[in-house]
Amino acid sequence: MRLDALLTEGAARLAAAGSPSPRLDAEVLLCHVLGVDRTWLYTWGDRAAGEDQAERFVALLARRAAGEPVAYLTGEREFWGLPLATNPGTLIPRPDTETLVEAALEKAPAAAGRLLDLGTGSGAIALAFASERPGWEALGVDIRPEAVALARRNAARLGLDNAVFREGDWFAALDADEGGGRFELVVSNPPYIAADDPHLGQGDVRFEPSSALVSGDAGLADLRQLVREARAHLLPGGWLLLEHGWRQAAAVRAALDAAGYLEVASRRDLGGHERVSLGRVPG
Questions:
Q1: Nearest CA to 248 among 227, 234, 230?
Q2: Same domain, yes or no: 92 and 59
Q3: Which end of the chain is more exposed for a tag (fewer CB within 10 A), N or C?
Q4: Which H or E element spans position 131?
Q5: Would you place residue 200 in the very low, low, confident or very high pLDDT band (cuts 50, 70, 90)?
Q6: Mean pLDDT of 203-210
Q7: Distance (Å, rounded) from C-alpha 139 to C-alpha 83?
Q8: Measured between alpha carbons, how far is 138 from 116 in angstroms, rounded to an integer?
Q9: How many whole angstroms separate alpha carbon 69 and alpha carbon 204?
Q10: How far, in Å, CA of 141 to CA of 121, rounded?
């Protein structure tokens, strides 16, 4: 079968299964099977697919139709223009999290410094920041060893030796930190979904690790813990920046105000929702 016909059939199958982006999903999966980019696919769509290629594509379509995330099927997701390896042990990097990277870069005008990324997962935030600030050290921490191993592989793959990763539970990983456990910036995309949130049973989230998604206190427990504990690990004038749910900004700002942070504010994501809140410790 011609590639363009195979693609059309695949997109139709995913549309019937309820995929929110059937054509794009089919393109990404077929490109993955062929080992080509989307430009090649459109240029050479009149070529015939090999029997093995068609079988692999159909198998991936079936898994996607059952709901498995494309990023787990291909083992990769682009974030901040960086190709990042992914696996079911970590969250899938999402475009909205680039709002956190943008805010961190804005608060890091100096040529050198240190950033701490808590709950780093695949390393997406730390690696994006490190790619833009080569004079800085980005330290990513995650409690899950499989996440730390993945983040390290991504750093090596991208050649970003100013991003390092360590296993540990939030700030407890800094006990032997060479920099004294103090940073100009502390950032995090922590678990912030309530355990009874219906979105946990929808879409890609069904396949992602619940430990990286769910937090107590209506989703605010980890956010409030980070607000309380980060001050001891920020240098004077340093910033704490937190991603949160689109309805949690007011609660996170209130926690930052109560803990004595200055210049407390929130930033909106691509959809116009307040997605990141931040505050500065006194100088």
A1: 227
A2: no
A3: C
A4: helix 124-132
A5: confident
A6: 86
A7: 19
A8: 6
A9: 5
A10: 8
Q: How many domains does the chain have?
A: 2
Token digits for 197?
């949130």
- pTM equals 0.91
- Cα gap 119→121, rounded to integer Å: 6
Query: What CATH number corresponds to the domain at position 268?
Result: 3.40.50.150
Q: Which residues contact 42 (CB under 8 A, 6 or more apart)?
A: none
Asked if residue 74 is part of any domain, the answer here is no
- Joined tokens for residue 47: 């070529």
Residue 180 scores a pLDDT above 80: no
pLDDT digits (tens, 9 = 90+) for 257-270: 999 999 999 999 99
Is the pLDDT confidence value at 209 over 70?
A: yes
Q: Rounding to the nearest 10 degrees, give the CA dihedral for residues 115, 116, 119, 121.
A: 40
Q: Using one digit for the tens of pLDDT, what is the confidence trace for 120-150?
A: 999 999 999 999 999 999 999 999 999 999 9
- Residue 179: domain span: 80-280
Question: What is the token pair recorded at 278?
Answer: 């931040």
Q: What is the DSSP string of 144-176?
A: -HHHHHHHHHHHHHHT-TTEEEEESSGGGGGTT
